[in-house]
Write the structure tokens for this entry.
Amino acid sequence: MAEYEVTGVRWQMGEGLTMEQRTRMAEEFLRTLKVGTPMILSAEPDNPHDNEAIAVYIDYTRRVGYIKHECCAEVKGLLNGDGQCDAVVSGNDGHVTFYVEIPDAPEASVSPVGATRKLPDCPLPQGLGLAFSDEERALRVVAPRLANVAVSADTASTLLQMTERYMPLSRLSLCCEDDVWRDRVLKQLRKACRLTLPQPVKERLELLRDELHATVGDFHCAHEHWQERLFDRQLDVLRQKADGEDGLFAKYEKYRELQPDTIERLARWFNEMPHVELRNYREHAALARRLSYIGVSRRELYEVYAAILLLDRYGADVVGLYINKVGTATLLTQKDIELLNGLSSSPLGEVGRGLSFTCTPTATSPASASSCSSSASCPRSSTTSWPPTARTSATSTSNAKTTTPFLHKFSIPFPHKFH
């Protein structure tokens, strides 16, 4: 039978409770929950937080948790036409999580870990990225073997040995591959702990099982900021490597003459992210939570790291981005944003998403432009190098012939107040 983790038990204990009260009530509930207790799994396609959610019910009408998000796609294939199926309790972790098995369901095959791309294609060219660490390469060797070993009394010693090697690598990153391996290895350990084994071996396996379960819990405990701390720690390590003689920054210095707009393209990349939490590369807490939740691959995570490092080094004062009519991105400084926010004629009150600009530069350069296609006052005087005027239209109204592209679209991907 296939076994699945049930999470969110604390949040089903009632309304208006503190986290401490929820935890205590959940622990009390699980102490009374016996192996073999019947449960009902029911899909919730209208769940406002996750339309793939599958709720777990006891006594027909009492919801006690949800199938872990990463397992929902697999469980969904086992539901009947009404979006339900029967299950039984198979055990718990002694804290606030329990497990269910679906009778007659085939054991899930352990396939290679992979993920469909969740982020837009990164504009970093090949050769201008970050290499995986030696630890991550080692993880890709031991984790598949550990997840595929046949669990039995005869293989318990081998399982223990591999798990000892795996545990120091279990908290490397937020990527989906690491998350999947943690779940698969935890299932293996739970199976092994049910076997009749020599006491020292069983005690050690139980200790490793509890340690790995705590690790899994940490990655899903947002209020303790574990994801953010891990994200920042890995970024700091990569920043040190990037400063090396043959690191990311040295490679970029050689490359920037060929592609001088790389930083602008990276800024646009963040601006085009599918989730608003990913558009501010300086907000690591929001970045870490969303990247973990949507399940990015290790390669995508490293692309994000590389982009952040390059933007931090070569665009430290960048807070915004405008895109002209031909699609070329140019970065704005904090001073630009402050000036634009001072436009009294803006119908939006402050610079925001969807605000557009048009201007009529001279044929020589924007530096000498003094007339704008709107009657609103420009944020800079006629002697300055950049005088756009706020408008709500996305189309330039100027018919002037000039070699300088008109400003076309303005968007702010970074500061909080612009979201």
In short: DSSP finds twelve helices and eleven strands in the chain. The first helix runs from residue 19 to 32. Residues 116-316 form one domain. The chain has three domains: 2-102, 116-316, 317-419.
